[in-house]
Amino acid sequence: MMIETIDNHGERAGDCEYLTLAFSPSSAPLRSRWRNNGLSADFLGDYVTTFLPADGAPPALGKRQNEVKHAITYIANELLENAMKYHLPDVEIPIRIHLELASDHIAVRVSNGASLVQARRYKAFVSQLQEGDVDDLLLRQQEESARSSESTMSGLGLLTMISDYEAQLDWRFDIHPTQPECMTVTTSAVLPLKVVPGASA
Amino acid sequence: MKNIHGESFDVRLEQENSTILFKGALRLCGTEDYAPILDMLKEALTSPAMPIVLDLRELDFLNSSGITMLSRFVMEARDRPGIDLQVLASEAVPWHARSLRNLQRLMPGLSIRLT
């Protein structure tokens, strides 16, 4: 499949279209802004369907559109929930979610502020992910999180993105330029469009 | 009949036929927020009119904390002798075919009916 982005002048504006939403977590407590994760994720999921060729009679979405829409909604929701949960309060780092549509992939990138300790913990989990078998890790995490009573970083959201949605993940850790005791953590999930799960080639 | 509902979801336990019905989109914030639903699910295990049916056909969205809650329930069911657990799922809801198989890995005897 192909997605072409046309700008207002009828010319192709690169090969990419993007949207960024930014949140300042200090403006409302976590609990009252929690519902906005779902609203934002639903919006991004809906948004991408415009760029996918229709395979159903309008206005109903075809199976392929529905699959991609759901995958983007799930991924965006999980990344946002993690960012909101682990964001370091009292730093001037906004939480950002960035959606990028290209001809061969859709990427969702979320960044948040983290303390050095949190960033180190997250990095350790990332190396576990990169070295281990994702299906085994998923099963182990399900068993473990079922046993522990507290909501710790289970990574189940990231594991399901890889295992159930075939997303390719990568990470960036940047030291804050003026506050060296904190980092901006960016998690990217890329869905290659040619192998969008459930889509016919 | 027992019922828990929120802005975007509804969960109902029908004790007389050991069925739990889920509707809408569940995106609660972590273990603590899912505890009342998990407790209600566990109630179905105490005096099951066999089998126990988890009807997810109208559950359009479930976040990973919700998947953890279902995993806990499935493991609880697995660890009690003689529990027959059935899941009703829908082909029209993309996450069902993708993520429910993970529950089957936790409890190989779990039956999933995808229609």
List keywords for this structure.
heterodimer, A: 201 residues, alpha+beta, Heat Shock Protein 90, five-stranded antiparallel β-sheet, 5 helices, globular, disordered N terminus, B: 115 residues, alpha/beta, Transcription Regulator spoIIAA, six-stranded mixed β-sheet, 33% strand
Describe the structure.
The complex is a heterodimer of chains A (201) and B (115). Chain A has 201 residues and is an alpha+beta fold. Chain A has a domain at 16-116 and 166-195: Heat Shock Protein 90, CATH 3.30.565. Chain A is built from 5 helices and 5 strands; from the N terminus they run E-H-H-E-E-H-H-H-E-E. Chain A has helices spanning 30-49, 63-86, 116-131, 134-147, 156-165; strands at 16-23, 95-102, 105-115, 168-175, 182-192. The longest helix of chain A is centred in the middle third of the chain and has 24 residues, at 63-86. Chain A is globular. Chain A starts with 15 loop residues before the first strand and ends in a 9-residue tail after the last strand. With 115 residues, chain B is of the alpha/beta class. Chain B has a single domain (2-114), classed as STAS domain (Transcription Regulator spoIIAA, 2-Layer Sandwich). Chain B has 4 helices and 6 strands; from the N terminus they run βββαβαβααβ. A 6-stranded mixed sheet of chain B has the order 1-2-3-4-5-6. The N and C termini of chain B lie far apart (26 Å). The mean pLDDT of chain B is 94. The interface between A and B is medium-sized, with 34 and 26 residues.
Task: Please provide a brief summary of the model.
The complex is a heterodimer of chains A (201) and B (115). Chain A is an alpha+beta fold. Chain A has helices spanning 30-49, 63-86, 116-131, 134-147, 156-165, and strands at residues 16-23, 95-102, 105-115, 168-175, 182-192.
